[in-house]
Specification:
CATH class of the largest domain: Alpha Beta
Number of strands: 24
Number of helices: 17
CATH topology of the largest domain: TIM Barrel
Structural class: alpha/beta
Oligomer: single chain
Number of domains: 3
Radius of gyration: 24 Å
Strand content: 15-25%
Bound molecules: alpha-D-glucopyranose, calcium ion
Shape: globular
Largest sheet: 8 strands, parallel
Length: about 600
């Protein structure tokens, strides 16, 4: 090795802020089983349907497939209410189907990640049936039971005023034993009592079972909610129309969270497993770092919600918010820099089964801009520091549910409960109801749950049977579907594949490199640089639907002068176009310039 080479290498190693890991170099595709592919015509997606699409997923270039819950469940919350962790929800298939799926995933060089929902179970789980049966049952202490409170006039109240995420109080009174149980979500989703070591052992056993079966890790549902402040204090009520506020202060990253996560982490480490924890209601990266700092060996990475909550209004998710690029810049940059500087790791996502579609929220649904803005978002997201997650349909630019949809067409209990509560509380307020419907169309969870658009046939070729899908298809599938995109080299699908390939080609730069925000005050463009050793990439994304003239800032001029174009979402872009003093960016234009090795 020559002297210069050694020098470069030492510098590169020096700039490796955090340890290497296979899961940092991977990307993930999330499947929502009910809506992915129906193989037997009953209107519900299933495991065999997924198996039939493995080559499609492989062609995208991802490394990991994460499935939303497939365990046995009464489906009050689409499987996030598990009644048996060792059995499969029958409409999805059998244990043998899952074994076949894992085999198929592995045969293609990919890995399977399971959704583990253990903050709560279904109320139909045998543990809860036992627990509620009597105060002396051995499972009583597996859940969180408390005595009622009574006002002076003898009216019964829940033990505290925490609200459920799905409307109303987070406690339900059980006549049988005259106590309340806690459920941060639906009343059919009682929270497990993690203070009880036997509960934790039961969770560990489930993890080992699935790891032994060939799962390569877990997505851990609301995992930062598992440790509750045992005093269970009230939350001050600030808005009288909402008597049951969110109690997150007393359970999001609660007192014993890291003790519990370390126990999970030691199992994950044994298997060199992947892990991503879902961590809502925490916006301080320092809190999340405690779980994802590389050396602590708790979790690999976490889904933080600061980007997802960016267009929520002052009265919550379904009140009008105001998305501004400058907020996105500050949030993204905060997490990018913080995790890099502190040996943590980011999970990168703009969509999942709980969110509106990113083109509808942050791009444009207009026909002339839909594909362009989808590719722009792919460029913007896919080249950041962290592990990228693509949610089914995102890779073909699926958008939110049609404007013509009435509330009757919705299936999700969060939206339905919210709507019922609101319309009962404010009868006749058509203005508020209209506004709320508009916000639900932007942000409600059903947006991401419409059947995957495979082709132009009936039911978008999601299902071949005569039974209509469990939730209606979107209107646009004849022109907007996977089969036309796979064969079109200029499609969003193939663009995404190109972005993921860039991460594989320049692993050091795009996976391990640093992040710097460029031209912070620009209101239309999101520009950032990635740097590793002698290699620099500048990622430019126009978030507006206007032409934007951009004078290339001094700090990246040398990259533009000597660099080459790696990728761009307008086909005609030329290297010479970027080498002047200023560039004219077209609507939603995005491109990447690279200099160095
Ligand atoms: C997570 C899931 C969501 C579910 C909730 C309760 O946020 O992503 O779908 O409703 O947890 O399990
Ligand atoms: Ca089916």
């Amino acid at each position: 090795m020559s002297g210069t080479e050694t020098q470069v290498q030492t510098r590169s190693q020096h700039q490796l802020a955090s340890g290497r890991a296979w899961w940092k170099e991977s990307s993930v595709y999330q499947i929502y089983p009910a809506s992915f592919k129906d193989s037997n015509g009953d209107g519900i997606g299933d495991i065999q349907g997924i198996i039939s699409k493995l080559d499609y997923i492989k062609a995208l270039g991802v490394d990991i497939i994460w499935l939303s819950p497939i365990s046995q469940s009464p489906q009050v919350d689409m499987g996030y209410d598990v009644s048996d962790y060792y059995a499969i929800h029958p409409p999805y298939g059998t244990l043998e189907d899952v074994e076949m799926l894992i085999k198929g995933i592995r045969a293609r060089g990919m890995k399977y990640v399971m959704d583990l929902v253990v903050n709560h179970t279904s109320d139909q789980h045998e543990w809860f049936k036992q627990s509620r049966s009597s105060k002396t049952n051995e499972f009583r202490d597996w859940y969180i039971w408390k005595k009622p409170r009574y006002t002076a006039d003898g009216v019964r109240h829940p033990p505290n005023n925490w609200g459920s995420y799905f409307s109303g109080p987070a406690w339900t009174y059980d006549e049988q034993t005259e106590e309340y149980y806690l459920h941060l979500f639906a009343s059919e989703q009682p929270d497990l009592n993690w203070e009880n070591p036997i509960v934790r052992e039961a969770v560990h056993k489930i993890m080992r079972y699935w790891l032994d079966k060939g799962a390569s890790g877990f997505r851990l549902d609301v995992i930062n909610f598992i440790s509750k402040d045992q005093r269970f204090p009230d939350i001050p009520v600030t808005d009288p129309s909402r008597p049951y506020p969110e109690g997150a202060k007393y359970y999001a990253c609660g007192p014993r969270i890291h003790e519990y996560l370390q126990e999970l982490g030691s199992i994950l480490k044994e298997y060199d497993a992947f892990s991503v924890g879902e961590m809502p209601s925490v916006y301080d990266p320092k809190e999340i770092l405690k779980a994802v700092e590389f050396e602590r060996q708790e979790l690999g990475m976490a889904f933080q919600f600061e980007i997802m909550d960016i267009d929520h209004g002052p009265q919550g998710k379904f009140s009008p918010g105001n998305f501004q690029l400058k907020n996105l810049k500050s949030v993204v940059s905060k997490w990018q820099s913080f995790m890099y500087d502190n040996n943590g790791w980011n999970a990168l996502y703009l969509e999942n089964h709980d969110q509106g579609r990113s083109i509808s929220r942050f791009g444009s649904e207009k026909p002339e801009f839909r594909s362009l803005s989808g590719k722009m978002l792919a460029t913007f997201l896919g080249l950041q520091s962290g592990t990228p997650f693509i949610y089914q349909g995102q890779e073909i630019g699926m958008t939110n549910l049609p404007e013509t949809w009435k509330v009757e067409k919705l299936r999700d209990l969060e939206a339905i409960n919210f709507w019922n509560e609101l319309t009962q509380r404010t009868p006749g307020d058509t203005k508020l109801h209209g506004q709320t419907m508009k916000e639900m169309r932007l942000k409600c969870r059903d947006n991401g749950r419409l059947p995957m658009q495979w082709g132009p046939g009936k039911f978008a070729d999601f299902s071949s049977g005569s039974t209509a899908p469990w939730i209606d298809t979107n209107d646009d599938y004849e022109n907007w579907n996977a089969s036309s995109q796979v064969s079109d080299s200029s499609s969003i699908f193939n663009y995404w594949a190109g972005i993921l390939k860039l991460r594989k080609t320049w692993v050091d730069l795009f996976v391990y490199g640093s992040y710097t925000l460029v031209d912070e005050s620009n209101d239309d463009l999101f520009v950032y640089a990635r740097l590793f050793g002698e290699s620099t990439a500048v990622v430019v994304s126009n978030f507006s639907e206007e032409n934007v003239k951009w004078s290339i800032p001094a700090d990246v001029k040398s990259v533009f002068a000597a660099g080459k174009l790696l990728v761009g979402n307008y086909e005609e872009l030329q290297v010479t176009d970027i080498q002047g003093e200023a560039i004219m960016l077209r609507p939603f234009e995005a491109f990447v310039v690279h200099k160095g090795e």
